[in-house]
Amino acid sequence: MINSTNSRTPRSLKANSVRFIDALSIGLNSTSPAYSIAAAIGPIAALAGIHAPGVMLASFFPMLLIASAFFYLNKVDQDCGTTFSWVSRAMGPWAGWLGGWAIAMTGVLVIGSLADVAVSFALLSFGVEGLAENDLMRRALAVALILVMTLLCVVGTEVSAKLQNFLILAQVAFLGIFAAVALFRVYSGTSSLDAMTPSLNWINPFGAGGAALTGGLLLGVFIYWGWESAVNLTEEVDGPVSASGKAGIWSTLILLLTYLSVGISAVSYSGTSFLSENAGEEEMIFAVLAEEVMGEWGWILLLAVSTSALASTQTTIIPASRTLLSMARRGALPGPFARIHSRFNTPHFATWSVAAVAIAWYVTVGLISDNALFDSLTALSLLIAFYYALTGIACAVYYRRHLAENIRNLLFIGVGPLTGAALLIWLLVESVIDMSDPENSYSGVSWFGFGPPLIIGIGITISGVIVMLVCRMTGTAFWLERPGVADPHLVSGTEG
What Cα–Cα distance (Å) separates residue 132 from each residue in 36, 118, 122, 254, 345? Predict the structure, then answer.
């Protein structure tokens, strides 16, 4: 392993505390499958029509290519900081620091919104719509939920993992019931909407045309994002060094099957017109579909979305907090972020810090308007595409002396990750162009002549550069590190 032991604090994370299945559950829950598909199915159907499932399939491939990069980089450097550590080693401290900042800030932007969705759909599933529509009560409950989920993260990864196992099983079961009932009603001719018989042609992403595919891929980045949380547990997973990397890859494959089954059943049951007309409702479209498909049992689907957001509220804290831990113990952030709880062996200071900033962001932006909160979520795609692309490039750069050794290295370590990175950079540019127009934002207002999501993304980037320069003034050894290459003995696969 190429970890710098001199940069570690005397206390470290609890090794062998998480099983492979636990890491897999956390990786799946971090993507919030039910919430993600609920939020994306309408907009994707509006763009691609019956080929919405095909766009979801196309969105999977950049994620799989980047998952390959995570697998091979984790194989030679088992650091919970993942992208931060790998990019620093391959491309230098400046690029690595910005990658780490992007990961931390994605957590800040999304945690509050996930908690909000978890509370809203739980209240709807229990039939108390009045509380769900009460902004003050809903936000207070969301903040309380964040605090509870943060406490669980601090108490221990084992406790978190057990909860995540239950939540992902419940979530997948709820989605499976919805898909099965929807398809049964389609084939039995009892659909209450404009039902269509599924066709293999639906999974052809090119059938919708280039513009629809481009727009759909931008949405697809969001629905698959988060699977790498499994790799952030690399120092805590029980098993060979490749276990957490494999969990990340399996997460993307299971997500693909889940999204395709639910996407096909939703399009088949309701038709594209219904989904397109309700695209602006985001995840609330499932509240309508639940009643249409399952009648009085519609609360099951509502509970699936709530469970999904609840699980992701917790798991999204993991990559952000462990990235901050990794950065601090390398000297890239102040020392307190490297503190490990004396009893629970978790990064308690970093974890509570992520929660505190996320709550502050959620409350502040929410007071502006719900649309402003949605705009901050839209800015996520910029940060996600940035650090995923960095990781893909870092993989090829770090392994550059070994790419020509065999065809496997060339394809899975070089060509694959670089292709994934290129696709994500293209999506990043497309996102910037799209977000520059204020009319494409939820709020529809102009901030300095641009859309709010782009300004939020630029603001986060500038603030990151400022914090980085301040940290650089400390003059720690981290800032003097030079890019390296992968150890030949580890590349050979002797570490499992």
Answer: 20, 10, 9, 31, 37
pLDDT score for 187: 92
CA distances from 440 to 117, 210, 277, 372, 396 (A): 23, 19, 17, 13, 35
pTM for this entry:
0.87
Q: Which residues pair with 450 in a beta bridge?
A: 447
- The token pair at 474 is 């400390």
Q: What is the DSSP letter of 476?
A: -
Distance CA 141, CA 126 (A): 15
Class of domain 15-491: mainly alpha
Segment 134-156, tens digit of pLDDT = 889 999 999 999 999 999 888 86
Return d(Cα 232, Cα 321) in angstroms, integer: 10
What ranges do the domains of the chain cover? Answer: 15-491
Query: Is pLDDT of 278 > 50?
Result: yes
Euclidean distance between CA atoms 496 and 490, whole angstroms: 9
Count other C-beta atoms under 10 Å from residue 425's C-beta.
17
Per the document, the length of the chain is 496
